[in-house]
Amino acid sequence: MGEEIIGKVTDYFAKIGVAGIQVTAGFLSVGDTIRIKGHTTDLTQAVDSLQVEHQNVQRADVGQTIGIRVKDRVRRGDSVLKVTPYAPSSCDFGLWNTQGVPDFGLKVPVPKFQKPPSAEWPVR
């Protein structure tokens, strides 16, 4: 999983559980997963709704201040990160197998651990 910083928390409204967030990089859409990280905050959740000037929107871009309902307290200055699943890029040249593990085409036998010939292990 990758994370990229997309903004900062500018306000938190405790009574209604909404965070004001300034988007400083990239964009944020409904359905994205975000992580809000700060000195005492570490919260990961999906974005259920976005509001700009009390109007529901599907996407927020750089420079916009948005409101997002959060499930726990956040603090002014906390970083907002967009969580993205890792997808191999074209620079990986197809060296990744379907499990996301490097596969360089090398078939090296992996030795298996075997018990020593005696039935009992040496006791120290």
Please give the share of residues in helix: under 10%
Would you list the SSEs in sequence order as H and E?
Answer: EEEEEEEEEE
**Physical arrangement of strands within the biggest beta sheet:** 5-4-10-1-2-9
**Radius of gyration in whole Å, from Cα?**
23 Å
The rough form would be described as elongated
Poorly predicted regions are none
Q: Structural class from helices and strands?
A: mainly beta
Total E-strand runs: 10
**Average predicted local confidence, pLDDT:** 81
Fraction in beta strands: 35-45%
The end-to-end distance, rounded to whole angstroms, is 44 Å
Largest sheet: 6 strands, antiparallel
Describe the structure.
The protein is mainly beta and 124 residues long. Helix content is 0%, strand content 41%. The chain is built from no helices and ten strands. The chain has strands at 2-13, 18-23, 27-29, 33-37, 42-46, 50-52, 55-57, 59-61, 65-69, 79-84. Strand 4 and strand 5 (42-46) form a beta hairpin. The two termini are 44 Å apart.
